[in-house]
Amino acid sequence: MSAEKMEKYDSGRVCPHCGRPIYCYDIPFFEIPVAITCQCILDQDAATEKQREAVKKQRRIEELTAKSQMPPRLRACTFDVFQRREGTEKAMDTCRTYADRFPEMREKGLGLILVGNTGSGKTHLAAAIVNSVIQQCYSAVFYKAAKLFDFAAENHAALPDGCERSSLLVLDDFGASNDTESRKATLQKILDYRIDGMRPTILTTNIPPKEWASRLDVRTVDRLMDKSLFRVISITAPSMRQERRRSE
């Protein structure tokens, strides 16, 4: 029989912490009085446990951030500080929804391809997704495509830590340096592993889809254009850096 169903009675004592009456109940057959824990103690225990979980989560976030390969500058990229301009609205809303619903995106293995001019904000949006995903305690890594390809070339086609198994991978500025067969093969290897493992990938590029066929392997293009695997998001805004220089 649970304590909630037993008849309780006032013990005549009060809680030394909050002054509330201390109630007791008797164990059946033995009639041994057992004091009911005061609500203030239960509340304190709950607060302590909540604080412990918060500290544990923060440590996990710090660990994931350290492993994300994100440059310090991009760790400050969030949706709240993104400069919303004409031509970025749809991409901004789509990326924010993707980040908010990442557990669902992860379950589907669905990735994004952000296409836009240099300086249009696609790297900021990709970094904001990574930061949001890490805050949800999922692993995420961010690599410049050229740096990743160089690493693979120097390490006998081996891939960097987290590139294959992380919950989310961002390849920034892909397509700009895929001009060799070995780099095309590396990109295909990454996509094959992640797609087969239902691990989402986000790519950013300034190369429009109509030019992919002339820049990439046919099989890679076929996968990138598969709507069940990737959503292609166009950012039509011009370079924000150029706009800033013109206004100075």
TrEMBL record:
<dbReference type="InterPro" id="IPR027417">
    <property type="entry name" value="P-loop_NTPase"/>
</dbReference>
<dbReference type="Pfam" id="PF01695">
    <property type="entry name" value="IstB_IS21"/>
</dbReference>
<dbReference type="GO" id="GO:0005524">
    <property type="term" value="F:ATP binding"/>
</dbReference>
<protein>
    <recommendedName>
        <fullName>AAA+ ATPase domain-containing protein</fullName>
    </recommendedName>
</protein>
<dbReference type="InterPro" id="IPR003593">
    <property type="entry name" value="AAA+_ATPase"/>
</dbReference>
<dbReference type="InterPro" id="IPR002611">
    <property type="entry name" value="IstB_ATP-bd"/>
</dbReference>
<dbReference type="GO" id="GO:0006260">
    <property type="term" value="P:DNA replication"/>
</dbReference>
<feature type="domain" description="AAA+ ATPase">
    <location>
        <begin position="108"/>
        <end position="226"/>
    </location>
</feature>
